[in-house]
Amino acid sequence: MKTLIVYAHPEPMSLNGSLKDLAVSTLESAGHDVRVSDLYAMNWKAVVDAADFGPHASTPLDVVRNSGRAFDAGTLTADVLAEQEKLLWADTVIFQFPLWWYTMPAILKGWVDRVFTYRFAYGVGEHSATKYGERFGEGTLAGRKALLSVTTGGPESHYAARGINGPIDDLLFPIHHGILYYPGLEVLPPFVLYGADKMTAEEYADAAKAWEQRLLTLESTEPIPFRRQNFGDYEIPSLHLKEGLEPLGHTGFRLHVRG
Predict the structure, then answer these.
(1) At residue 129, does pLDDT exceed 90?
(2) What predicted TM-score, i.e. pTM, was given to this entire model?
(3) How many domains does the chain have?
(4) What is the mean pLDDT of residues 21-34?
(5) What is the CATH number of the domain that holds 98?
(6) DSSP 149
């Protein structure tokens, strides 16, 4: 297995840093190839601007079309091209980050904004009366798996169905479905460590064992069964879920998960 770890935390000695290091050692010891994109260590540029597109930048700037033209011409910046190559190389992509303000750190969102360009991660495939592009189960990154490894400051009860922060599955849905599944990645259930700020050494030892187990079973773990866009569940072009397909009691985000 070839695994890319995209890591976003400014402190190498943090819990996230330890989980990243443990992932590298565990996977390599099991015979897998591992590459790491340590965004803070790379001093990753987080903002999209005209410099990303060189001679293909227009005035006024059109991020979508400019990024697509630069991608097609092979003239995206070297840092972006390197990350796209890593994604195409990988069988599995692990994203290691703390949940900050209910989402990923800005540097990681900036990685997505710059690397998931038009014609690479979106804007691909046929658009017709029966197909609305290759996305949500199809696309450039189809055939690969993705896993979020996330830490939170609050305890697990705060992220339960009636918890004040909202269910963790709902908080992660925009990342799982809208960022990862959109370009074709099969999304594995997340690995979440709660109460990271108050974790004891004993608790970390248990968490490390659980993380090792998840890592060693990546290949056999079933992905979240999101509905595929072009395979009959949605009306096209409205992309509304067809009536009667939802399990009893399912609403909101859960409509887009089978079963």
Answers:
(1) no
(2) 0.95
(3) 1
(4) 98
(5) 3.40.50.360
(6) E
